[in-house]
Amino acid sequence: MANKGGHRRFGNIRKRDSGRYQVRYPGPDGRIRTAPQTFASKTEAERALTLIEAKILNGTWTDPELAKVKLGTYAARWIDQRQMLRPRTRELYAWLLGKHIAPHLGGVSLGKLTTPMIREWLTTLANDGVGATSRAKAYRLLRAVLMTAVVEDEILPRNPCQVRGAGSEYAEERPTLTIPQVFELAERVGMRPVGNFRKLDSGEYRLRYRVKGGIMRRFPLTFATRAEAERALWKLAEDGQADVIRDDRLRAFILLATFASLRWGEITALRRCDIDLARRTVRVRAAYVEQANGRMLLGPPKSKAGVRTVTIPAAIVPALAAHLEIYTKPDADALVFTGVKGGPLRRSGFNKVTNWKHVVKALGVPNLHFHDLRHTGNQLAADMGVSTKNLMARMGHDNERAALRYQHKSAKGDRAIADGLDALVQAEHDQDDEDDDGAAGVLVPVA
């Protein structure tokens, strides 16, 4: 708006040699800013100044100089400054930024990001074959970064991540085991078929296996790869043609992970002093995190609620007692479950020692992951009809969402509640019959 004499009350406008109009104005701190774009007419420039003044007055103005920072630079700094991130989460964020965000949007200034641009980025990821889960994770990271730019740093007036449903994951339903399957899996992880492989001059592999009685036999066919020969040896063991040996050092590991609903990092960090067989409790107070470089870090559980004490079924106490007696050192601080060399058990070592893929395939659940054991334990607990708070405490969650997911899925838990209500109703009926002393009740109309 111009004052008398043609002088503007707020900001100024000048015509450039190009014929376009440039806007300059004082920010809230008194410093003179130049609008990031020029305008085709003086009327457009005046309208822009009016809008800028209104934003300054109502507190929604953002400094255009700050908005010039590139997204890649800002996001990398955002990750570095999040001191509370767990190591694995920090690695995941850095990977998502470098793999899916920075190559497409990293060179764009924060102030130039728009919702259509982000929608196009998601479309490009999908066309490049990036899975829905990875796209959702990348979008949620970008949304969190830009929310900081809006709320904390006040660089942007609004978050351009406004693509409906882009941050939602629809993961496939994970398998759960029956109780007999859990015990069968605990037995199978300790089975090893006896045989050996020899690479021939032709590059193929010859298989020899031991049959009952200790006799070694040569398989009549050769195999193009060692992996094929290994699969054949496991098939021979499953069919009862090859002899097997047993190693029970991971039997209690499977049972405890399932029936105590423990995460991988939690169960691998357990010490002898955390196990109380008399009270049938397991104390969870730490967790191991394996970084991408192979380094093992010992820290707190995933959440505050992760520090907990879990009661275990009496049925698995004998297996745990035997494990402590045979495989765990006597020191109170000794790791309950260890790798081959006595250090913390690693996922890669576990999969190799157990031949996990062969074992779960033989069990009839070829897509089973180790984390599905915790999933199974959570579902079994929900089937008991316990309260949400009790289920949260057992799972080590500090929000209700995960617990409610298990309870909503639990038809058995709902049936248990209904059966309990039925028992209460029946008890009341029985009490009424006793109070009536056997006399038949008569309905009397009331005027």
TrEMBL record:
Residues 428-447 are annotated as: Disordered. Pfam families: Integrase_N_phage, Phage_int_SAM_3, Phage_integrase. Coiled coil: none annotated. One of its GO terms (molecular function) is DNA binding. Residues 69-150 form the Core-binding (CB) domain. One of its GO terms (biological process) is DNA recombination. It comes from the Bacteria. Residues 220-419 form the Tyr recombinase domain. Keywords: DNA integration, DNA recombination, DNA-binding. InterPro entries: CB, DNA_brk_join_enz, Integrase-like_cat_sf, Integrase_catalytic, Integrase_recombinase_N, Integrase_SAM-like_N, Phage_L5_Integrase_N, Tyrosine_recombinase_XerCD. PROSITE patterns: CB, TYR_RECOMBINASE. Belongs to the 'phage' integrase family. This is Tyrosine-type recombinase/integrase. The lineage of its organism: Bacteria, Bacillati, Actinomycetota, Actinomycetes, Streptosporangiales.
